[in-house]
Each structure stands twice: as structure tokens, then as C-alpha cells.
């Protein structure tokens, strides 16, 4: 059986920062729309995508906007407190447990199209090293921001590929901040999927 894969999506500034005080370091409305559109996009309208995130990322989303709508939300935590979350949020103790659960639960397996890792640092690091990793959807923010949370080093087995047709190319600008969308593909050495090329 082919193992379920995932992609990552992140916005990173020039000093590798992704967050500060539980929030994003910048206010880029269109970039947030890109995140929302990309993680919601399905080719089969009967299916949904999954977003997997660490506990701090989940609680960093404004209360009115979480769980992230139209997506299956999984929160990673080693100290699950179900009472802190609505019933439709799934809690998992590790990224691999989350992926196995998605592969094993028939009722989920049949309705899932894509799986997205949406932060924070630890989940991103583990995800990029995993043979399940497909792509990294990156927004390069062309400025330095004060941050307390940083993106791990991108391993050397990621290479840039052309953008999807629905993603804007070239320099984007909002509130005087420039940024660029990129997609990086992880190269695999054919150990997953029984030797399939990726
Ligand atoms: N720029 C971007 O694209 C972007 C994207 C996402 C987040 N952010 C920002 O990044 C910050 C949050 O990220 P963060 O790295 O500080 O925290 P985080 O990863 O969201 O949350 C950390 C917590 O999640 C749980 N966790 C994380 N990885 C786990 C794993 N592999 N297995 C089990 N539990 C795991 C643990 O929870 P317990 O302590 O409960 O065990 C851990 O304390 C915020 O500022 C947010 O706004 C930015």
C-alpha cells in the first residue's frame, strides 16, 4: 500500500523567522488567503484536506477562525486536554501517529485528498526529514522581522519546481512588504511506495 504523503506550507522571512509571541510577525492579508486557498484546494469536491499543526500554532489562530474551516484539523500535543478543543479537532501525540491514524481509519481515509503540515518548527523539521514528504510550499518574505520562532534548515534534497498555475508568480507586495511564492520538491531515493519515482 502506498504510504500517505504530505506537503508543508510556510512563510519565512529573511532571518528565517516564522513567528513571534504565538502570532505571525507580519500582516499580509493576501498571503493568508494564499495559505487558505492552497490548503483547502481539492480536485474531488467530496473530499477534504487535512491540516496538521502543533498546539501553539493552533492556539495562535484567532478563536473565531479555528478550527481552520473546510479542512480536517489535527493538533499535535504530548499532553492532550480534549476539553480545550472542539469535538471536530483530532489530537495526536506525534506526526507519524497522525499519519497512521489517517491511513487506518476507514471513515477518514475515504474522504481525505491531501495532507498539509502547517507548523510550527518541530513539525516542520520532522516533516522535511520524513520519506512521506512531497513538497514545501514556501513564501519567501523579503524583509527581516523580530521573531522568536524559526524555520529549520531546509535539507539539501529539496529543489525548486515550477509554481502551480493558480499561484501568483514574481514579487508580491502588501503593506510595503515584498514576498515571493516558491514550491520545493523533495527528492526521494525510491524507498517509499515500493520504488515509485516522485
Ligand atoms: N510563518 C508561518 O507560516 C507559520 C506557520 C505556523 C506557525 N507559525 C508561528 O509559529 C509559532 C508557533 O510555532 P512553535 O514552533 O512555537 O509551536 P508549535 O509547533 O505550533 O507548538 C508546539 C507544541 O506543539 C506540540 N508539538 C509540536 N510538535 C509535536 C510533535 N512532533 N509531536 C507531539 N507534539 C508536538 C507540543 O505541544 P504540547 O506542549 O502540548 O505537548 C509543543 O509544545 C507561532 O508564532 C505561529 O504564529 C508561523
Q: What does this protein look like?
A:
By secondary structure, the protein is an alpha/beta fold. It has a single domain (6-16, 29-38, 52-195), classed as 3-Layer(aba) Sandwich (Dihydrofolate Reductase, subunit A), CATH 3.40.430. The chain is 21% helix and 31% strand. It contains 5 helices and 11 strands; from the N terminus they run ββαβαββααβαβββββ. It has helices at 29-40, 55-60, 95-104, 106-109, 121-129, and strands at residues 6-13, 17-19, 48-54, 71-76, 90-92, 112-117, 133-141, 149-150, 158-161, 172-174, 177-186. The strands form 2 sheets. Strands 1, 3, 4, 5, 6, 7, 9, 10 and 11 form a 9-stranded mixed beta sheet that branches. Strand 3, helix 2 and strand 4 (71-76) form a beta-alpha-beta unit. The protein is globular and about 45 Å long. 27% of the residues are buried. The structure holds NADP nicotinamide-adenine-dinucleotide phosphate.
Write the layout of secondary structure elements.
Layout: E1 6-13, E2 17-19, H1 29-40, E3 48-54, H2 55-60, E4 71-76, E5 90-92, H3 95-104, H4 106-109, E6 112-117, H5 121-129, E7 133-141, E8 149-150, E9 158-161, E10 172-174, E11 177-186
Parallel strand pairs: 1-6, 1-7, 3-4, 3-6, 4-5
Antiparallel strand pairs: 2-8, 7-11, 9-11, 10-11
CATH class: Alpha Beta
Low-confidence stretches: 193-198
The distinct bound ligands, ions and cofactors come out as: NADP nicotinamide-adenine-dinucleotide phosphate
What count of helical segments does DSSP give? 5
List SSEs in N-to-C order.
EEHEHEEHHEHEEEEE
Q: Superfamily at the CATH H level? A: Dihydrofolate Reductase, subunit A
> Rg to the nearest angstrom?
16 Å
Q: Sketch the major β-sheet.
A: 9 strands, mixed
Amino acid at each position: 500500500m502506498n504510504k500517505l504523503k504530505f506537503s508543508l506550507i510556510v512563510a519565512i522571512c529573511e532571518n528565517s523567522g516564522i513567528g513571534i509571541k504565538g502570532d505571525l510577525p507580519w500582516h499580509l492579508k493576501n498571503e493568508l488567503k494564499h495559505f487558505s486557498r492552497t490548503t483547502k484546494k481539492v480536485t474531488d469536491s467530496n473530499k477534504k484536506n487535512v491540516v496538521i499543526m502543533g498546539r501553539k500554532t493552533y492556539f495562535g489562530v484567532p478563536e473565531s477562525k479555528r478550527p481552520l474551516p473546510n479542512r480536517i484539523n489535527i493538533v499535535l500535543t504530548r499532553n492532550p486536554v480534549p476539553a480545550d478543543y472542539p469535538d471536530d479537532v483530532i489530537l495526536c501525540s506525534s506526526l507519524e501517529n497522525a499519519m497512521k491514524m489517517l491511513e487506518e481509519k476507514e471513515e477518514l481515509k475515504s474522504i481525505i485528498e491531501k495532507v498539509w503540515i502547517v507548523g510550527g518548527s518541530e513539525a516542520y523539521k520532522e516533516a522535511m526529514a520524513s520519506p512521506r514528504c512531497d513538497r514545501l510550499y514556501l513564501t519567501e518574505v523579503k524583509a527581516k522581522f523580530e521573531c522568536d520562532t524559526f524555520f529549520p534548515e531546509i535539507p539539501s534534497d529539496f529543489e525548486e519546481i515550477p509554481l502551480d498555475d493558480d499561484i501568483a508568480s514574481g514579487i508580491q507586495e502588501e503593506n510595503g512588504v515584498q514576498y515571493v511564492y516558491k514550491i520545493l520538491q523533495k527528492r526521494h531515493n525510491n524507498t517509499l511506495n515500493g520504488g515509485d519515482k516522485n
